[in-house]
Structure formats: structure tokens, C-alpha cells
Amino acid sequence: MNGHEEVERALRAAPPHDLLDALRGVLTRHYRARTVDLLMADYGLTVLQPVSVLPHTTEPLSVHNSPQGRAFGAQEPLREEHEEGTVVHLPVSVRGDRLGVLTVTLPTGTCAPAIVTELADIAAMLAHAVTVAERDTDLYLQARRKDRLTLAAEMQWQLLPGRACSRAEYAIGAQLEPAYAVRGDNFDWSATADHLVLTVTNGMGEGIDAALLSNLTINALRNARRAGVPIADQAALADQAVFAQYRGEAYLSVLLLDFELATGRVTVVDAGSPRLLALREGTVTAVDFDAQLPLGMFEETDYKAQEFRVRPGDRLVFVSDGVHAVASPAGEAYGDRALARAISATRLLPPAEMPRAVLRELTGHRGRPIPDDDALIVCLDWYGRPTTDRPTTEDPDPRRNRPSFPETPPRDPR
């Protein structure tokens, strides 16, 4: 049995809390590894923390100025030569979601390129194993926090699908702030072979009340989505659920989008939504839809869907009012202009890194590290399907084939 096969078998057989020890044993036998360590990225994406029995026995490492952090950011293996041997830092990621870094020390002269490739594959296997193990142990979730989460933040992070996701047609990255005390903002996504459904929520209220409202709304939307109904009906059913609970005293803004992966056609329901800006061919433009009522404001609201199209190379950026409306010490709102500059300045960053970079710039505008309101950024890069797999993008409706972006969504004549 080769090392790759033994790692796979060992990870499957290991108890959820014991994945690292099981992996360490295999790497010691097959690769003569001297040390094997797993570091998890914290909720704020600022440090990498060791997976160990609490309290941690080693100090966290910066994501921004450490070799481990460089491997995490670049999502590529990084080698270092030391007296004790060759140290290899390997990204631990699953379907684009960056979990952390696996660090392995090997004897000098034994780290050929083929070995690095094998170890990178093993790190990916570990990422899958950790994702499954988190259902049954708190060990990896504890390693992700450098401070204590508020109860509201605990609820919000547990509700999220991840912080990033990628496949051939698209890549998504998202981040919430304040990471350890977020209250009501949220995001969700789900994909099939043919569609991606993305939900961006701008929460209302404070503390646990905001988290409860977001939890009810997200789960109502998921329940409707899993029943197979269109997004306009998903919004209507979630609206009914929120109104039934709060009778109009609490509500929240949501933007629902259904992407047709083969064509780039997007169906949208704007329920008092967060802001959407699009970067196409170097130009950033605000995308506006016909605004409809937030979910839960009134009983039995009827929601209408609109359409637009994305093209390969487009970047869509969604922000909550905690980004768009945040004020400087002088009272100046961040606004579309500053946001457009930030989107242009970060255009070369991958979606998984872009939100954090903009939030760092937003901190400078705000003039203080801790925001008064939740700040949410979701970045989606659209690649489209290869031409051989995609039907023609020409639409019989000429209104949706104009070269400008965004296209003005047609209003429902009713």
C-alpha cells in the first residue's frame, strides 16, 4: 500500500478528533516526516492557529507575514530549507474554501517535486476529512477562534455554507465583520449541475434578536428552495414565515439570485436588498433592480423576479449597508464611488481574498477597528462554461443582448 492510499484509509478510520495524529503516523512511516502540524484560519482571516488540545500550546501565526500565511494566501505549496530539514507548507482547502495550512518537515534532500505534489493531494484529503469531522467534534472549530465568539456570532457562523466555493463556472468568496460579534448579516449558496442559487441577507436588529431573525429567514429560504420552487416563490414563502413570527415588527432585506450555469442568465428577486456592483472590462457599475418590500414587513407580499446576464470575466460584488453606508469620523458615507475604487484596486485578487482586502480598507475609512454595524461582502467571479458545453449566449430578447452592463431589468407590466 502506498502512502496516499494509507492516508486515505487512516483518515477514514480515525476518530473525528484524532485526524492529525492518524495523518502524522502515516507521514512519519512513508515520508520520514519529523513534524506534522495543522493550522486553521481564524474567523477574521487574520491568523493561523494550531489544532491541539485547548489551551493552545503554540502561538498563532499571521496570515499576512508568515510563510504559512503566504502558502494560505497563494493556495500553493511553499518550501523552506532549515537545518532540521525541508519544511513544506501546504494549503488545506476543499472546493475553494480555505480552511488552513498543513506544515510537514522532511529530511533534507528527500523533498522532490513529486513528493510535494503527493503531500498537496494529502492536504486536500485532510480538508475533506476535517469538513466531515466538524459535525462530531469541536476541536477544529475551537482552533478557528482567537477570541471568544458572541452567541449571535456563533449562530451566524454555524449557519453559513462556508467562506468560499469554486467550480468551473464560478468562484465565490465572502466575509463577515465584526467576525467575532456579527449579528444579522448573512449569505448562503447552493448549486446543482445547472444552477447556482445565491442569497445575500442584510440583517436587522441587535445581538441575539438579529441572529434569530436571520436564522429563521435563511432556513425558510432553504426550505422553500429544497422544495424546488422558483426564487420568487421562495421569497414569498420566507416572507410569510417571518411575518407569522414577528407580525411586521421585524423584517430584513434579502437579494436572491438564481444563476443558469450554461448561459449566464440570472433571475433576481430584490427584497429591499444589499447593494450589487459589477466589474466588467475594467468598469465598475452599480446594478439596480426594481426594489420590493423586505421579507416579513407585510403579510402575503407578492414578489416578482427580474433578469439580467453575466458574461465570462464579470465580477459581482454584494455589500450590506454596513459597508456602503458606513461613515468616516467626519460623517462622510463610504458610498458607491469609494466602493468602486476598492473593487477596481482589488480586481487581481481571487474572490476568496477580495472581501477581506476591501474590509481592511473600510476600516481605514471608518477610523476605528470595530464597526458599529455588521459589514458583509460577497464576491463572485463568473467564468462561464466552456463553449463546447454551453448553448449560444444569444438571447431572442434584444433588450438582453446589449453590450453594456448592467442591463436595465425589464419591469413587469403588471
UniProtKB/TrEMBL annotation:
InterPro entries found in the cross-reference section: Bact_Sigma-Reg, PPM-type-like_dom_sf, PPM-type_phosphatase-like_dom
Gene3D superfamilies: PPM-type phosphatase domain
Pfam (any one): SpoIIE
Residue stretches of biased makeup (Basic and acidic residues): 387-400
Annotated ranges, domain PPM-type phosphatase: 167-382
An example molecular function term from Gene Ontology annotations: phosphatase activity
Chain positions covered by the region annotation Disordered: 386-414
Keywords: Hydrolase
Chain coiled-coil ranges: none
PANTHER family attached to this UniProt entry: STAGE II SPORULATION PROTEIN E, STAGE II SPORULATION PROTEIN E-RELATED
Name of this chain's protein: Phosphatase
